[in-house]
Amino acid sequence: MNFEILIELTYLASAVLFVVGLKRLQSPATARGGNALAALAMLVAIVATLIDTEILSWTGILVGMAIGGAIGGFAAYRVKMTDMPQLVGIFNGFGGAASALVAVVEFVSNPSIGMGATGVTIMLGTLIGAVTLSGSFIAFAKLQEIMTGNPITFPGQNWVNLGLFFGVLFLGAASLGVGGLALSPLSLFYLFVGGALILGVLIVIPIGGADMPVVISLLNSYSGLAASAAGFVIGNMVLIISGALVGAAGLILTQLMCKGMNRSLANVAFGGFGGGAGVDRALIGKRPVKSADAEGVAAELGYVNSVVIVPGYGLAVAQAQHELRKIGDLLEARGVDVKYAIHPVAGRMPGHMNVLLAEADVSYDKLYDLEEINDDLSKTDAVLIVGANDVVNPSARDPRSIIAGMPILDVDRARRVIVMKRSLSPGFAGIDNDLFYMDHTLMFFGDAKESMSDLVREVRDLA
Amino acid sequence: MGELMIGLYVFVLATLAGREVITKVPPTLHTPLMSGANAISGIAIVGAIVVAGRAEGTTQTVLCIAAIAMAMINVIGGFLVTDRMLAMFRKR
Fold it and tell me: Is the pLDDT of residue A285 over 80?
């Protein structure tokens, strides 16, 4: 058989394995095997490429693989589960950068390529990859709290971004000889790359911390599109297919996250939402609340039939997932029916809370989505909210509220609501939460981890 | 039909196939889905190896090595961390 055909068939097999691997992610029972299949698909594609490519120097390739493999392996091994959003964020950036560099090298090796299909795909791949790279690094910096998680805005921001976007497009076209500028194509191209990198920064800085699930999903999608574009540049189908799969995954998650907040993508991207703009902060936390200590909370939870636990980003910050699971276990041992309710945008990335609870060894069939559990909440004896705020704010039902229409967990319909929180400070949306002041709500103030440890002890000591 | 058009067909159909498959991934697995997708976007390594094979001069060589290294971070890091997470999803 013709050698080229054999290589192409190998790439095809790799593409099929990627799809089958992703399909196995449809159930937690088969997901691990699916991931292994996708890894096999990657290995097959890499080996086929190494065999097929006439390689002038192996040294560089092997050095690059060794360095990248060591860094990736170390990061994967060391990362804390609470820090997954940062890790995924920065990995998006590396994926975008690698794809962009493929396109960049193609241009640098032939700067006089001129206007044409290959030239346009090179510009597209470079643009998407560069935006993904710098945007992801900003997202990483926000999540890692190297820079402020609040939106960074300035007057006319959207116009500046729009102007820069068209400027970058113009530079891309100019690099392909359009417009007959006096600068060399290579100089224009470097300006183009620089502009694209700045664009990525400007796109992400106005987006606040709690909108990060949307941003991470979107950048995930971009990193796939960048890989597809690189596939068009070098005419490789497995790159186009895998990139498209990642692009689709990111896009689906982006839509789900937007739906979880009842906001459009445009509103997230250009809204500068969060930090409490236009809200009268003077009133926040000024109304009387009922509070309880660990002993009181233990008594509220230990003698009922059903408890629903609602985790939020505060749980991740305090890294209190293991203590939370202990409370769940102790309550179950007392015959209480314990469930966990997870809002789609709880945490800083899609599925963030599920991973934390899985790490704490909570069985995944006890984790319920918003739609699955909302009807049950009115029949629930007690709800324990740990570090969540906006996603349980009943004012989402008020059409005048800034979060109007956002799907919320209907925890206020339970017989007893216990909110574990550091203070009455507002959540990301910057608005007060009426839930805290309701008659059947008890505030359990304190650091989540300490409060949890106290609560574990008190529940254990119950008669 | 030119190579670009074929590529476009493949891209669109792969996106639709991906949509069908990934829509059914349950919310509880969304983080592993993302990190797994991270790993798959490391497929850029194939492109990086192809261009590295014919790289000339220091600039191109350095850029290619950087591309390979970054793609490899995604491949190894992405698959390993996804495996680490999925190993924790247990039913008791």
Answer: no
DSSP letter string, A369-404: EHHHHGGGGGG-SEEEEES--GGG-GGGGSTTSTTT
Structural domains of chain A, with CATH: 79-270 (no CATH), 284-461 (3.40.50.1220)
- Rounded to the nearest integer, the mean pLDDT of chain A is 91
- Check if A22 contacts B (Cβ < 8 Å): yes
Contact assessment for residue A408 and residue A365, using Cβ atoms and an 8 Å cutoff: no
Is the pLDDT score of A20 beyond 70? yes
If one counts the domains in chain B, the total is: 1
What is the model's pLDDT at position A278? 46
A89 touches chain B (CB under 8 A): no
DSSP state for residue A414 in the 8-state scheme? S
Nearest chain A CA: its distance from B44 CA (Å): 5
Q: Say which DSSP state A79 is in.
A: -
Within a domain: residue B74?
Answer: yes
Name chain A contacts of B67, Cβ cutoff 8 Å: 64, 97-98, 101-102, 105
- Lowest mean pLDDT across A242-246, A427-431, B22-26, B30-34: A427-431
Q: Does residue A274 carry a pLDDT above 60?
A: no
Q: Is residue B16 part of a domain?
A: no
Contacts of B50 in chain A (CB under 8 A): 49, 53, 102, 234, 236
Query: Domain limits at B36?
Result: 27-86
Residues of A in contact with B51 (CB under 8 A): 102, 105-106, 109, 234
Please report the ipTM that was assigned to this predicted complex. Answer: 0.96
| CB atoms closer than 10 angstroms to residue A3 | 9
Selected catalytic residue, list A52, A280, A337, A390: A390
Q: Distance between CA A102 and CA A125 in Å, rounded?
A: 8
Q: Would you place residue A288 in the very low, low, confident or very high pLDDT band (cuts 50, 70, 90)?
A: confident
pLDDT in tens, A96-133: 999 999 999 999 999 988 888 899 999 999 999 999 99
Residue B8 located in a structural domain: no
DSSP sequence for B10-72: HHHHHHHHHHHHHHTS-GGGHHHHHHHHHHHHTTHHHHHHHHHHT--HHHHHHHHHHHHHHHH
B37 in a structural domain: yes
Rg of chain B over all Cα atoms, to the nearest angstrom: 17
CA–CA dist A37, A294 (Å, integer): 47
CA-nearest residue of chain B to A253? B30
Task: Provide the pLDDT for residue A58.
Answer: 83
A365 is catalytic: no
Answer whether 0.90 is exceeded by the pTM: yes
Contact residues on chain A for B58, CB-CB shorter than 8 A: none
Q: If contacts are CB pairs under 8 Å, which of residues 40-69 in chain A contact chain B?
A: 42, 45-46, 49-50, 53-57, 60-61, 63-65, 67-69
Q: What is the pLDDT of residues A290-343, one digit of tens each?
A: 999 999 999 999 999 999 999 999 898 888 999 999 999 999 999 999 999 999
Q: Is there a contact between B31 and A84 if contact means CB atoms under 8 Å apart?
A: yes
Distance CA A331, CA A378 (A): 20
